[in-house]
Specification:
alpha/beta; signal; six-stranded parallel β-sheet; five-stranded parallel β-sheet; HAD-like_sf; CDP-alcohol_PTase-I; binds magnesium ion; HAD-like domain-containing protein; elongated; Rossmann fold; binds SN-glycerol-3-phosphate
């Protein structure tokens, strides 16, 4: 596979170590509600390759043949010893929307496919650019819909890696947005961030921030549901008298009213200071969000209601403004409508476009993106798959020799060439373990041949195109020699 980086839309990524990833994994499990079992696999359902075939209604007899001369493979490994069972040297990474589910309903073959892999202890992980819920809640929902036994170890969603930034921002104030302001706050607080503000909070404290009617009567017009962590900043948000008569969100001018003789530093401290901004999932109130984000990107050191003079010198984002993090770059995704719908990536492009106008194209917007197709997501998946495979094999009595370097291939099954497929192709062979990544595109989601005509070598071009997830897995099993040609 070609590994050109054509499709990486964003300017920067974080370089991280496997230690960080391990930390993230343990953090995720803080919220694990469904189970505490450390393995990827639990209580396998009664399913065999032949029941997989009949459940899928395959017309060909790929799985209905007796297991070929690979007797050590199609046996349930739970009670087998290393001499009786050959551990798979491959694993799967599945996208969710457009591969396992469409409009929250299971796609044909999805449940059976996961059950088959679970039963035979073939490792897999779900990698979604979706978000907006706690990992444990989303996994519980998926288990309900797919009849599966997954834990949060099987799962990575768009904002899962934000937890890695906890050491840096735990005690600072961050601004978050997404589909639901309060839910975004709840998630980030659940991750451990102690002072979380939304554009809704800023709007409530100073409605003049957004001089249009649409938001005013809507959800964001509600009262602030609970006090913010820092009392000083809470005063600022409410803009009340406790702040010494100053309207801290609005007093952006140098030497504002009633402040004569006071030093600039002191006045700045009376403003709410934001140190980082996070987009968790697809925002709804784009206009308010863009306004608030743009204000902060031009602010003095992230103080709300200020403007940095450095901007006038062309030193954009050069005055301690908050760092900006996106969790998902998908421009489009497969929803209920027959044509693809815009996702978080479209919001990001809108912000980038306005930034370009404001800065007269002089400076690209500096930001960090997580999620597919970015390397960190694949790195995380590989780390989780290797670790859990290793733990399980160790428990089964396998030696270090068998475990180390044992994962040779990961099959990424996705519906979006620009995220799932481009990311897998780009990451192929470049991870810490040198694992090969094979990209399998399915036709049950956003992919539309009429829209995408990729030439050879394009990073978005999949290794294989299959009808659906069951066919994709079948192709991979055939490729591994686990079923007959
Ligand atoms: O908002 C969700 C969407 O962008 C994609 O989700 O599961 O296809 O990565 P998924
Ligand atoms: Mg998808």
């Amino acid at each position: 596979m070609k590994a050109t980086n054509l499709f990486l839309l964003l300017s920067s990524t974080l370089s991280r170590t496997s230690t960080n990833l391990a930390t993230a994994a343990s953090l995720i499990n803080r919220k694990a509600a469904t189970t505490t079992t450390p393995s990827l696999f639990r209580s396998p359902p009664p399913l065999s390759p032949s029941s997989f075939v009949s459940a899928r209604g395959f017309r060909d007899d790929t799985f209905s043949k007796p297991p070929p001369s690979i007797g050590k493979r199609w046996i349930r490994p739970d009670s087998a010893t290393p001499s009786e069972w050959e551990a798979p040297s491959f694993a799967f990474a599945f996208d969710i929307d457009g591969v396992l589910l469409h409009e929250r309903a299971p796609l044909p073959g999805a449940a059976q496919t996961l059950a088959l892999l679970d039963y035979y202890h073939i490792p897999f992980i779900l990698l979604t650019n979706g978000g907006g819920k706690f990992e444990a809640d989303r996994v519980a929902e998926l288990n309900e819909k797919l009849g599966s036994n997954m834990t949060t170890d099987n799962f990575c969603q768009s904002h899962t890696p934000f937890q890695e930034l906890l050491p840096e921002y735990r005690d600072k104030t961050i601004l978050v947005t997404g589909s639901d302001y309060e839910k975004c706050r709840e998630i980030m607080e659940g991750y451990g961030f102690r002072s979380v503000v939304t554009p809704g909070d800023i709007f409530r404290a100073a409605p003049e921030v957004f001089p249009f009617d649409t938001v005013r009567g809507g959800e964001v017009g509600r009262e602030l549901p609970k006090p913010l962590w820092k009392p000083r900043e809470r005063k600022g948000l409410r803009g009340d008298d406790e702040a010494g008569g100053k309207t801290v969100l609005m007093g952006g001018k140098k030497g504002g009213e009633g402040e004569e003789g006071e030093g600039e530093e002191k006045r700045l401290e009376d403003h709410l200071k934001i140190d980082a901004m996070f987009v968790l999932n697809d925002p709804r109130d784009w206009a308010l969000d863009v306004q608030v984000f743009m204000d902060l990107l031009q602010s003095k050191q992230g103080y709300v209601g200020t403007y940095s003079e450095e901007n006038n010198r062309g030193n954009w984002q050069g005055d301690g403004q908050p760092k900006l993090f996106f969790s998902n770059s998908d421009l489009i995704w497969a929803a209920k409508y027959h044509l693809p719908r815009f996702g978080q990536g479209a919001f990001q492009h809108a912000l980038v476009g306005i930034w370009k106008e404001v800065t007269e194209g002089k400076k690209e917007l500096v930001r960090t993106s997580f999620g597919k197709p970015h390397r960190e997501t694949y790195e995380y998946a590989e780390e989780m798959l290797v670790r859990h495979r290793g733990e399980w094999l160790k428990m089964k009595g396998y030696g270090e020799e068998d475990i180390r370097g044992g994962l040779k291939r990961v099959y990424m099954v996705g519906d979006n060439p620009e995220s799932d497929i481009a990311g897998a192709n780009d990451y192929d062979g470049k991870g810490r373990y040198g694992t090969e990544w094979v990209s399998l595109l399915v036709e049950t989601g956003v992919f539309d041949a009429a829209r995408m005509n990729f030439k050879d070598g394009d990073v978005r071009r999949a290794d294989v195109v299959e009808k659906d997830v069951a066919d994709a897995v079948k192709w991979a099993l055939r490729n591994e020699g686990w079923v007959d040609e």
